[in-house]
Every structure is written in C-alpha cells, then in structure tokens.
C-alpha cells in the first residue's frame, strides 16, 4: 500500500486526483485497496446526473422575505462553465434588490485554513447542484418566476441566483455535518474537504461522510472530486501538511490585473488583493492610501 507509506513520509509522489472517469484513474494512480473499495461502495453517491425526481424535503426551506407584494419575473440566459457545459442563470437583480437580506454568517476561510494546514492527507468533494437540494418554502414559489420563450415557470427548489441562497444552504450543511465539523470535515458552501492525519483515519472519515450524503440524498460530482491527496487546492489556496500557499492562478490574476483608473475598478482590485493579505507583510499599511480614497 504505497499511498499509506506516502502519507507517513509526507512524500508528494502519490497524489490521486480523480478527473474524468474513475476507472481510468484507478489504473493510472496507485490508490490503496481500502480507498478503492470505499469509492466502489459509494458510486451511487457520485452519479453523472441528478435524478429527475424532486429531492426529499429537508428541515431547511428557502424563504424570500419582501417588503411588498410586488411580483417578479426574471429573464433566463446561459453561461459557459470551465468544462464547456452551460449553466442556467436567471436575472433576479430586481428581486434581489428588494429582498430583505439574510445576514447568516458564511464560514470564515481563515478558520478553515488553520485546521486544514495541520492535516497530512485530504479528500475534496464538490456537491452536484447542491442548492437544488433545498426546497422553496410554501407560498414563496411565485417569487422565483423565470420567463422563457416557452412561458413562465416557478422553481420548486432553490436556484443559484437568489441573493439569500447561501444562507439556507449553509444552514443545511451545518445541520447534516455538525458532529464532524472542525474534527475532520471543512465545508464552504458546496465544497467539502475531509482531512486526516493517517490513512486509517481517512478511510473511516470518508465512510462517515458518504453515509451522511447517502442518508440525505446528496450527490457529488465525481469528476471534480480528488481523493487521498497530500496537497489540496481549496478556495484559491494550495494546502499541504504545515504549509498554505496562494494558488498560482490567483497570483497570476493579480499580477496581470490592468491598472484601475476609477474608484470602482480600484475597489474590485482591492477585493481580490485582500484575499492575499495574510501572505503580504504590512499589507494593511501598504493598501491604506488606496482604501482611504473617497
């Protein structure tokens, strides 16, 4: 079991990243037999597409609180994803503008990184259309109306473009994984990272996470999952045992950013640069002349 030895020695030799078909990756990478068995037993949690049926109703429903009874209908359009598939989008800007904002706290990224940085091995999972697992609350569906050339339609489950969508989804994920959070599971929206200090623990942790996913009818994108890695890419950072670095693509994006000529453009740049401040000595002092601009 070479990967077990790799975990113990901290060697970056036995990375096992699932990209595309699982079977071909099993042949190309020396995954341990125990991990291979775990993945095989949980293939039903990693379907290529979600079932056409509605997900079972969970404890969390999404409500849209408006200050008036105004009706809305958002136009539909598509955006290309990195993998060249299309993402259905709805222009809910008018609805979002008048929606009472839910201030539910999103997990602090720094807290996640501090815990992950001490682990020796990682698995990263990406939920397949996770927001679709949250129902729209009864009486709220007309507010989600979207307009197409074939007519107007209401959503039964939560679409991605609503301003408060992250709040009920974060609530759901915390309810489902609360007993494992800060122990061996880190969650940011629909990204799940499992971190461990030994292969034995990692197999056990994987089984527990798969069990929660199956019991709650949640599915993951196996083409975006990476199992038993010594290094993991997470939220624009590269994390390995005792080390956290900025992802190379993020650094290049900052280096190649066009010089802003307007205050709004400057704020956009600072929003990205602030993400890197923990890696820049005296960042706040350096950025102060820019952040103090009216």
TrEMBL record:
- Gene3D superfamilies named in the record: 3.30.70.270, HIV Type 1 Reverse Transcriptase, subunit A, domain 1
Domain (Reverse transcriptase): residue spans on this chain: 60-239
The record's section on Pfam families has:
RVT_1
| PANTHER family reported in the protein's UniProt record | RNA-DIRECTED DNA POLYMERASE HOMOLOG, TRANSPOSON TY3-I GAG-POL POLYPROTEIN
UniProt protein name:
Reverse transcriptase domain-containing protein
- From which source organism is this entry? Solanum lycopersicum (Tomato)
Source organism lineage? Eukaryota, Viridiplantae, Streptophyta, Embryophyta, Tracheophyta
């Amino acid at each position: 079991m070479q990967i077990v030895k790799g975990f113990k020695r901290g060697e970056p030799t036995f990375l096992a990243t699932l990209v595309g078909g699982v079977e071909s990756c099993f042949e190309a990478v020396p995954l341990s037999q125990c991990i291979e068995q775990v993945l095989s037993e949980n293939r039903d949690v990693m379907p290529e597409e979600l079932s056409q049926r509605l997900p079972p109703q969970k404890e969390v429903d999404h409500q849209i609180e408006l200050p008036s009874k105004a009706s809305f209908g958002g136009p539909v359009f598509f955006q290309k994803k990195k993998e060249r598939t299309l993402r259905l989008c709805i222009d809910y800007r008018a609805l979002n503008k008048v929606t009472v904002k839910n201030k539910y706290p999103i997990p602090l990224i720094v807290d996640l990184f501090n815990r992950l940085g001490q682990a020796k091995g990682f698995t990263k999972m990406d939920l397949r259309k996770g927001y679709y697992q949250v129902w729209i609350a009864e009486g709220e569906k007309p507010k989600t109306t979207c307009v197409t050339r074939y007519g107007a339609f209401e959503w039964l489950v939560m679409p991605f473009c609503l301003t408060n969508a992250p709040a009920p989804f974060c609530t759901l994920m915390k309810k489902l994984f609360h007993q494992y959070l800060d122990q061996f599971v880190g969650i940011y929206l629909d990204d799940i990272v499992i971190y461990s200090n030994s292969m034995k623990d990692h197999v056990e942790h994987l089984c527990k996470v798969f069990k929660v996913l199956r019991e709650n009818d949640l599915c993951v994108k196996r083409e975006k999952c990476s199992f038993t890695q010594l290094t993991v890419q997470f939220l624009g950072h590269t994390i390995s045992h005792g080390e956290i670095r900025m992802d190379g693509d993020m650094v290049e994006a900052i280096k190649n950013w066009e010089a802003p000529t307007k205050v709004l453009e400057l704020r956009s740049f600072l929003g990205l640069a602030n993400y890197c401040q923990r890696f820049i000595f005296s960042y706040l002092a350096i950025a102060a002349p820019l952040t103090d601009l009216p």
